[in-house]
UniProtKB/TrEMBL annotation:
Residue intervals on the Cytoplasmic side: 24-382
Main location: membrane
Name this protein carries in UniProt: Lipopolysaccharide assembly protein B
Pfam families in UniProt: TPR_7, Zn_ribbon_LapB
Gene source species: Comamonas endophytica
Family, similarity comment: Belongs to the LapB family.
Subcellular location: Cell inner membrane
Amino acid sequence: MEFDLSWILLGFPLAFVLGWLASRFDARQMRAESRSAPKAYFKGLNFLLNEQQDKAIDAFIEAVQNDPDTSELHFALGNLFRRRGEYNRAVRVHEHLLSRGDLSRPDRDRAQHALALDFLKAGLLDRAEDALRRLEGTSFEAEARLALLAIYERSRDWKQASDIAHRMQTARQGDFSVRLAHYLCEGADVLAATGKLEEAVAQYQQALVLAPSAGRPQVDLARLQHRLGHSEQAWSTLQGMAEKSPGALPLAAALLPELAQVLGDAQIRPWLEAQYERLPSLDLLQALVALDAAHPGAPGRERYVAHLDKEPSLVAATRWLADEPFAQEQHHPALQRALEHASKPLTRYRCAACGFEARQHFWHCPGCQSWDSYPARRVEEL
């Protein structure tokens, strides 16, 4: 059988035409896909700028489907899910990014940080801790350490918090001496509550060495020294506090009448009067009135009236009126109750960071977790 070369001559042009058509089809498809991805991206961006997050997410999902290798779209999508509180979907997006073998090192670190934020926002602190620890040695190291510090403070793991704060201080990422002093005080509070009073004193003193101008170690140390019967030491601690951190003295004012009963009134009263003249406050005023109660010739309740010349105070007026005789005494109890009801909110403490109010003073705000955000003065005095 003879082979006909004419078929070969006819086949070459046919193959060329088919190949050309196939390449044209692929090129058109690629151009269509490349046009659709930016179009979906810009559509999503437009929705995002107009605060239409649902439509923006739909547009970004469409763009990711058209071009699954676009990491920036994944990051945008994951951040949108996190902002909406859809933490499971955000975690899936960022875990998908981390599973990709072609992801660059900076993008991998970024995805790891985003995943840690997902866990943190979702309240999964153990998983967030693990994700944050993997960021050591990356460009997100400082942010990760701050987040870890917040986790340990929230869980009251003061040892771990101290370790992180020491590392950040060593790396010159800020001055954490006051915060480290707070951690020592927290540990000392636990020791004192379990009866280990001498160990607690040593820890307060260590905190005072670390942050000499911090108010908390001095206030807590003076209270514990007096509790142990070391009233002279407590008095010395308060005198030092008046020099180094006078603003915190009102927090220890209630201790002064107790010290006066042990050490005598002669040295404490003049000193307290001088501190009150230097920085008038309701707590120092109340301590002076309490000292006067044991001395008939002392000003006593008249100090409330004198305080009104310095500062208008409903609290001071209410306390003065409590024992003041009225012309119509039958109305006195009702009037006193009304005044006390009105003045009671003014005796609270208020966080300067978040505005959270409480009847007791906090060194660590239970609302916003800020340290030293509660002034030592009452709401009325702010």
